[in-house]
Amino acid sequence: MVLFYKVARASEYLAITGFGVPDIKLAKKAWILPGQICKRFSISPENYTFEVQAMSLEKLPFILPAVFTIGPRVDDEECLLRYAKLLSQHDKLSNHVTELVQGVIEGETRVIAASMTMEEIFKGTKSFKQEVFEKVQLELNQFGLIIYNANVKQLVDVRGHEYFSYLGQKTQQEAANQARVDVAEATMKGRIGEKQREGNTLQNAAKIDAETKIYSKQREGEGKKETAKVETEVKIFENKREAEVAEANAVLAMKKAELQKQAKVAEVESVNAVAIREAELQIEVEKRNVAKQTEKLKAEQLSKTTVEYEMKVQEANWEFYRRQKQAEAELYEQQKMAEAKRVAAEAAAFTRQQEADMEIYSKKKEAEGIVAMGEAQGLYLRSLLESLGGNYAAVRDYLMINGGMYRDVARINADAVRGMQPKLSIWNNGGESCEGGAMKEVAGVYRMLPPLLSTVHEQTGMVPPAWLGKLPAASES
């Protein structure tokens, strides 16, 4: 039996398979038993250089030179096992490993480039590199590999598609055109400034004369306007507070829409900026020439027309301001009246709803009470009927006596014959007197019952219950 003791270097691991090892065993040093196979593999990262040919969203081809530093993830034993299995039949610099890494990088790079425009790739190289790095790392995780570093070099044109060279020429030409435009604009500003100074001298002289005449009118109008303004502002202050909240929300929405609009307009303007700028400068030169001639004519008539114009403008502005504030005050009053009516209507509707709900609730509870009382009476009657052995007549008689029906009948009969001359029957049984005896009262009650029952039967037709006794045969007939 021959044993071997093997030790791995600092940047190596031993992968042991065979006898006594279920799958694969990683170690820095170990005894190699007969029937076991030991293979060394390095965990130091390696550089892989590629030139990936990709195509942008606009179907423009380009070459992306890149250098990736890739190695196994040494802090995860499971990743090391995957990497050891990958290198079980190949070296890390073999064509198999290189083609595997290259296939992953090229595939993910092409997918990402196909979803971006050439301008986005060129200007956002950093974000493009980061996205490629993340996508490739996800694929390499299944082989236990990790990207230690990734460098994306300058994008290169594919032969026959010189996009980047034309883009550089465009940038140089735009800079040259901008320089020429700046020179022309500076020359134009010098000439225009000279003429403006001459015109301003004449205009200021006429303006001072006109301002002196209209100053007194302005002060008088301003005094009246300030008085009316203070009175109006007091009335509309509360209305403004409410309107400012809605206005702020509207302004925010408008600003968002405006920013989106500006972003889209900026994209369109960047394409035709040079042509538009040249046209604007030509138009500006023509406008300056026309303005110079116009100013010359206006200076001649300014002193006469300015005073009349300013006075009419002040009068029109004052009238417009007065009508506007009056309309705003009327509108505010109408809004408050409408709001008060709406609140009153809502309060009345709420009151009616509460009353209806209370009535429904009362009826519901009353019905529930009637049902409960009926159930209790039914239970009471069933219990009473069972106690009397199912004798319905006995139950009826008991209820009549317990409910005081005979007492009510006697009272009703007494009320009916009150004031009349009813037939009175007086009787005794003719027996012995029990005066002085203890049973005198009892004997009197028993003597009184037969005549009483006969009298009730004669006057009302009612028959006494079975448990109380029967009437004589003559009385019943």
From TrEMBL:
Superkingdom classification of source: Eukaryota
Keywords: Cell membrane, Coiled coil, Lipoprotein, Membrane
Pfam families named in the record: Band_7
Designated name of the protein: Flotillin-like
Domain Band: 7-186
Membrane topology: Lipid-anchor
UniProt record similarity statement: Belongs to the band 7/mec-2 family. Flotillin subfamily.
Coiled coil: 249-296
SUPFAM superfamilies noted in UniProt: Band 7/SPFH domain
GO cellular component, one term: caveola
